[in-house]
């Protein structure tokens, strides 16, 4: 079982990662995207649009306001700890956006779109590897994905498409096209660091299938197939728990396995596609 000290150490590491990632994101916004009138993806892009249309408040302030109702949704629908760290990411991003000066390093809008997209994506992807997110549309897309068999990436595409379209209608289509470029670059970087849109199949060989199955279902809303198995060396009776999840949920699954049955053997393989039931309540 995981000791109390090791758990506290992991949580401390997660906080440090979030602090670093929020500073990186603020630099990408205030030194590249905002000076060039290029909009980011997700709730940050929404906050940029609101700040441009309603200037009394800054991008950081709008980012915090937009994420308050989203955090409440995530608290009840996604998970309390996940939502806490996601909102912490938002709060720290707001803080650093007020601290880091809005200063353009280049007048080339193309360079700003590319480098701004890369830097903000790094700030958004790092917490994903540690079981948190940048909040905002991450949580909305995750909630929507739990009520359908469509991948999380579909909802990210639709929600970010609204941001690009709004940028074109409200400002100019050149800004919209560069925003689309920044969103594309961000998605590629995030997929490189943490491919959250891809489904994977986890095959868990365990001697405690009942306890582990119950623990998994407390954290992940996916169906599990139980397959009888026997150890090749000791001929002990085991079971293989097969579950298809998004990589967004991979961190939570690993935490549950390490806590409930650290001796379990888990094989993770990329899933090309699925047919039929995907959610537990199907």
UniProtKB/TrEMBL annotation:
Coiled-coil parts of chain: none
Gene Ontology CC entries for this record: plasma membrane
Top-level taxon of the source organism: Bacteria
Membrane-spanning residues: 12-33, 53-75, 82-103, 109-131, 152-173
Pfam families: DUF2179, YitT_membrane
Start and end residues of each DUF2179 domain: 222-276
Record localization: Cell membrane
Recorded topology in the membrane: Multi-pass membrane protein
Keyword terms: Cell membrane, Membrane, Transmembrane, Transmembrane helix
Listed InterPro entries: DUF2179 (IPR019264), N-reg_PII/ATP_PRibTrfase_C (IPR015867), UPF0750_membrane (IPR051461), YitT (IPR003740)
Protein name per UniProt: Uncharacterized membrane-anchored protein YitT, contains DUF161 and DUF2179 domains
Species, as recorded: Salibacterium halotolerans
Taxon lineage: Bacteria, Bacillati, Bacillota, Bacilli, Bacillales
